[in-house]
Amino acid sequence: MNEANQSNDNQPETKTPAATPPPLNPQQLNPQQYVPIPQNPGIKDLFEILLRRPAQLAGHKVCDEKSTLLRFGLIALVSILVFGFVLGTFAYGNQLWAAPLKLGGGLIFAGLICFPSLYIFSSLAGSKASAARMGGLLSGMLAMAGLLLLGFAPALWIFAQGTASFGFMGFLALASWLIALVFAFRFIRTALHETGATQKAPLLIWFGIFLLVTLQLSTSLRPILGKSDKFFTTEKKFFLQHWSEMMGESLASIPKDESEKSETSTNPYLGR
Predict the structure, then answer these.
(1) Rounded CA gap, 146 and 69, in Å?
(2) How far apart are CA 90 and CA 231, in angstroms?
(3) What is the domain partition of the chain in residue ranges?
(4) How far apart are CA 5 and CA 103, in angstroms?
(5) How far apart are CA 11 and CA 126, in angstroms?
(6) Which residues fall within 8 angstroms of residue 83, CB to CB, at 6 or more apart?
(7) CA gyration radius for the chain?
(8) One-character DSSP codes across the chain
(9) Average confidence (pLDDT) per 10 residues, the chain, 272 residues
């Protein structure tokens, strides 16, 4: 009996292998946060997903589809046209249609001329996205920026109707564009990371290129806020030079006393 017990003690213990837990379903983690993206999202779906779940949309295969690219482009174009119309109400007249047309055309032009450099710098960053997917991501970035500008439009309309300061309105428009670009750049950076991009420096260089292009277009397409007899100006200026001149004229046009208010109420500096 003792020998049988001793032989049993000498036998190695067999351990039952631990059961591997099944992979977690993201829908089971937090059903309120995870919402699947439709196979063919419409404009309304993309509008909500861009604002609420941009990171999820950035890595989704739906960005590869041409229909999504066109819908992104439509969202961006409509948003920038509304934003341009609001800026046009600062001077009224021809600016009600000229400002939206210039901003909408300028945004499309900036996207087209910056697309080749986006593909090159994203490839240098390690991205394996195709040209078709890159186009969809760029249109998504522009749509994100447009939606942010659309959100700023009501506030800018209040100031456009309540102030005659050209410099202040220009500052508000510029600040709105910069804030919109911050969120737009974050969207495309997340999307490119999902496609394999690991280096930040090439993406930052491209962001700087796109920003400079859009700022220079704001000067090349002038006037956007002010009035002019010509739709375009042929005078070449760097955007920093143009801003400094407009700010100087804006400060010089401020009336010093009540007798000067009637003379400066027409904002003659808007004619440039």
Answers:
(1) 14
(2) 17
(3) 41-223+237-248
(4) 90
(5) 56
(6) 100, 103, 146, 149, 150, 152, 153, 156, 176
(7) 28
(8) -HHHHHHHHHSPPPPPPPPPPPPPPHHHH-TTT--PPPSS--HHHHHHHHHH-HHHHHTSGGGGSHHHHHHHHHHHHHHHHHHHHHHHTTT-TTHHHHHHHHHHHHHHHHHHHHHHHHHHHHHHTT----HHHHHHHHHHHHHHHHHHHHHHHHHHHHHHHH---HHHHHHHHHHHHHHHHHHHHHHHHHHHHHTT---SHHHHHHHHHHHHHHHHHHHHT--SSS--SSSS------HHHHHHHHHHHHHHTS-SSHHHHHHHTT-GGGG-
(9) 50 50 44 64 84 79 82 93 95 92 94 95 92 90 94 94 88 94 92 88 95 93 83 81 74 54 38 40
Q: How many residues does the chain have?
A: 272
Residue 188, token pair as written in the block? 């495309």
Q: Which amino acid is at 195?
A: T
Residue 109 has which token pair?
Answer: 């032009």
